[in-house]
Each structure stands twice: as structure tokens, then as C-alpha cells.
Amino acid sequence: MSTIPACPHCAMENTYPDGDNYVCPDCAHEWPMNAAASVDEADARVVKDANGNPLADGDAVVLIKDLKVKGSSITLKMGTKVKSIRLVGGDHEVDCKMDAGNFMLKAAYLKKV
């Protein structure tokens, strides 16, 4: 079995090494051999709550302060429990559903339950 990865663009396994890159002859996609290492570094990013506890997908959290929603008269109240969060990239790391709607929140305003 070959240790050369399948093409991330078309998923074909006809790839071959060429210098510092892998090449797919089927779709002509090229990507660096060290791309797998950079993906692992992105997955290694740890999102922590206000107390420093690491968060994961599916965790339940509680808001630690009232949050006003921009462009709306809605205020998310302190102590509101949010179940089944999802971690995403960017400034607002937590995506969640609440009774008031779907929101993206900063982990600094959350506490793991």
C-alpha cells in the first residue's frame, strides 16, 4: 500500500511526488508535502472558556454575563445554559442555538458546565 495521500481536490489515488509537492495527474492539483503538518497545527488550536477549561464540540456552557445582540433588542441573560455547542474558527469561536435564535459567541463569555 502506498504512503502517498490521495488528492484532496478530487480524491483520486493516482498522485505522485514531484520535488516538494504532490501532484494529481487527474485534476492537475498540486499541494505541498508538508500540508498535512499545517492541518494538524490548525486542529491543535484549543478554545478555552472564561475559567481556562478547554471546550469541545457538544459541550454545555453557561453565559457569565448579559450580552446585548447587535442590531436587535435581544439581550442574552447571564446564567442561560446553552447545550451542544459547536467550535468554529474566527474571532467568535462558539456557534450555538438558543431559544432566541442562532448565535456565534466568544468563549471568554462562557463557562463550561
- First-residue to last-residue Cα separation: 45 Å
What's the CATH architecture name of the largest domain? Roll
* Helical coverage, percent range: under 10%
Number of domains: 2
Low-confidence parts lasting 5 or more residues at pLDDT below 50?
none
Mind telling me the C-alpha Rg?
21 Å
Number of helices: 1
Query: What is the name of the CATH class of the largest domain?
Result: Mainly Beta
Mean of residue pLDDT? Answer: 87
Which structural category do the helix and sheet elements fall into?
A: mainly beta
String of helices and strands: EEEHEEEEEEEE
Q: What is the general shape?
A: elongated
Estimated share of beta-strand residues? 25-35%
Q: Main sheet: which strands, in order across?
A: 1-2-3
Number of E strands: 11
